[in-house]
Specification:
It is a single chain. The protein is of the alpha+beta class. It has three domains: 89 residues, Winged helix-like DNA-binding domain superfamily/Winged helix DNA-binding domain (Arc Repressor Mutant, subunit A), CATH 1.10.10.10; 128 residues, ATPase, nucleotide binding domain (Nucleotidyltransferase, domain 5), CATH 3.30.420.40; 164 residues, Nucleotidyltransferase, domain 5. Helices cover 43% and strands 23% of the residues. It has a five-stranded mixed beta sheet. Strands 16-15-14-17-18 form a five-stranded mixed beta sheet. Strand 10 and strand 11 form a beta hairpin.
Length: 407
């Protein structure tokens, strides 16, 4: 007889063995499904090599996943001197997920299949909401209803929401840029939806999806920069199954002493030079015009990028933006020694191609040579809906952790 796992009561050895065996099978199933999802399509032989499990164990688990409708065979590839190897992949039609991006200027909601293919998106500006949590939650609920219109809510096995702040205790949001402190945002959403709800910092969710499906995939240590109205960074370190993701308030590191005022109350923060509205304001100051901010700031930033092709104030502002962004990235490189830095988020998608050469040049001048030489600085690969897509990885991550079992 041995003590029970929680209560301290004595359990028969046979019961402990059964529990241990069940836990091991659950662990193997979750590990193999995660590997298949993140690396796939892959063959059974590749799963054996990567997991270290026996061929028999892999075959049994894969058979279970196929029988449960989570995984399907997805073609074959030639092998060296033997029969073609059958590839396996997670079925996109296994279920749907909803991803919600709550930013400082808008709410974007996307419906995605199980392989993170986009099925539909809607966007609502936060104009007139005064960033009131109840009103923002109302737009989230409206967006979810819109992307599900004509479909079956029962097909959705999870809703993920990315917010510009810290999430504690399952759904309490502290978001200074929204003026939220201890807002129970989950409670404003969860009673109105059928599926499980997940909340996290939007920089972290963006980092997760860029390393799962985007430009950070395959890196040993990737830094994913979220460039929008706010500026943040996620650090993704490769692991055996999921990359480990941590976030930082990178946008509020100082790049110029006594510099431009930042909305956090300090001066000279990186965000005050490379955030969407900061770039728009700097351009307006040079051009002698009124800044276009709020939900229209993305469109104004795109116009500035286009105008910069002809030189003038727009080109000067983008050159300055690239310089400060390069300094900020050089600081991260010197501190964390990544092998890849990804410029993502809405502003990354809009101005990234135009400022990338200037960013790389500044990195080369400000980072230590031996660290800069081993670090790629690249553009995000997932487009303007990347943050909503990142939020959709939250229920997917739970699905993988549960070995493909919903609920």
């Amino acid at each position: 007889m041995v003590p029970g796992p929680r209560s301290g009561r004595i359990l028969p050895v046979t019961q402990v063995v059964r529990q241990t065996t069940r836990d091991l099978r659950r662990h193997n199933r979750a590990a193999l499904l995660s590997s298949l999802y993140l690396r796939g399509p892959v063959s059974r032989l590749e799963l054996v090599a990567e997991s270290g499990l026996s061929a028999a164990t892999v075959t049994n688990v894969v058979s279970e996943l196929i029988a449960d409708g989570v995984v399907a065979e997805a073609g074959s590839v030639e092998s060296d001197g033997g029969r073609p190897r059958t590839l396996l992949a997670v079925r996109p039609d296994f279920g749907h997920v909803v991803g919600v991006d709550v930013s400082e200027t808008h709410v974007e909601v996307g419906l995605f299949d199980c392989a993170l293919g986009t099925l539909g998106t809607v966007r609502h500006p936060l104009v007139g909401t005064r960033l009131d949590p109840d009103e923002v939650a109302g737009l989230v609920r409206t967006g979810i209803a819109e992307v599900l219109e004509g479909g079956s809510p029962a097909a959705v096995f999870g809703v993920g929401i990315g917010v510009p702040g810290a999430v504690r205790d399952g759904g309490i949001v502290h978001a200074p840029t929204l003026g939220w402190r201890g807002v129970n945002f989950a409670e404003l959403i969860h009673p109105h939806i059928q599926a499980p709800l997940h909340l996290d910092n939007r920089a972290r969710t963006l980092g997760q999806v860029e390393t799962w499906r985007g430009a950070g995939r395959g890196a040993e240590r990737a830094i994913v920069a979220l460039l929008g109205v706010g500026v943040g960074a996620a650090v993704a370190t490769a692991g055996r199954s999921h990359p480990a993701i941590t976030t930082s308030e990178w946008g509020h590191t100082v790049v110029k002493a006594a510099g431009a005022a930042c909305r956090c109350g300090s001066h000279g923060c990186l965000e005050a030079y490379v955030g969407t509205e900061a770039v728009v304001r700097h351009y307006a100051d040079r051009a002698g015009t009124e800044p276009v901010i709020g939900d229209e700031s993305d469109e104004e930033l795109a116009r500035i990028v286009e105008e910069a092709q002809g030189g003038g104030p727009a080109a000067d502002v983008l050159a300055e933006t690239g310089e400060y962004l390069g300094i900020g990235i050089a600081n991260l490189i010197n501190l964390l020694s990544p092998d890849r830095v990804v410029l993502s988020g809405s502003a990354g998608a809009i101005m990234g191609p135009a400022i990338l050469p200037a960013v790389r040049d500044a990195v080369g001048r400000h980072a230590l040579d031996y660290l800069a030489e081993r670090t790629e600085v690249v553009l995000g690969a997932l487009g303007p809906e990347a943050v909503a897509l990142g939020a959709a990885t939250l229920p997917i991550a739970e699905l993988l952790a549960n070995g493909g079992r919903v609920g």
